[in-house]
Amino acid sequence: MLDSLPFVERYAWFHFSPPTDGQEGTALYASDGTRTTVGAAYRAA
Predict the structure, then answer these.
(1) How far apart (Å, rounded) are the C-alpha atoms in residues 26 and 17?
(2) Which residues form the domain of 10?
(3) pLDDT higher for 42 or 35?
(4) Is 19 within 8 Å of 32 (Cβ atoms)?
(5) Best label site of 10, 13, 17, 35, fewest CB within 10 Å?
(6) In this structure, how many other beta carbons lie within 10 angstroms of the beta carbon of residue 42?
(7) What pLDDT, on a 0 to 100 scale, did the predictor assign at position 7?
(8) Is the dihedral of CA 15, 18, 22, 23 positive or negative?
(9) Over the stretch 1-34, which tens digit does the pLDDT of each residue have?
(10) Which pLDDT score, from 0 to 100, does residue 4 have?
(11) pLDDT more than 90, % of the chain
């Protein structure tokens, strides 16, 4: 979606919520260094 906008040159990820109670939050990587579901989606974009 962002790639098709002529005024977007690049974009960055900002981590908003830390993982809590077994949830991933918005982290791209888990504490063991593996990608989270969110991280995999960001990588695929």
Answers:
(1) 6
(2) 1-45
(3) 35
(4) no
(5) 10
(6) 14
(7) 93
(8) negative
(9) 678 889 988 877 776 666 677 776 778 888 788 8
(10) 86
(11) 4
d(CA 5, CA 27): 26
Q: Taking the C-alpha atoms of 35, 15, 38 and 31 in order, what is their torsion angle to the nearest 10 degrees? A: 30
d(CA 26, CA 39): 8
Alpha helices in 1-45 (DSSP H): 37-44
35 backbone φψ class: left, alpha, beta (φ>0; ψ -120 to 50):
beta
Q: How far is the C-alpha of 37 from the C-alpha of 45, rounded, in Å? A: 13
| The amino acid at 30 | A
Beta strand segments in 1-45, E: none
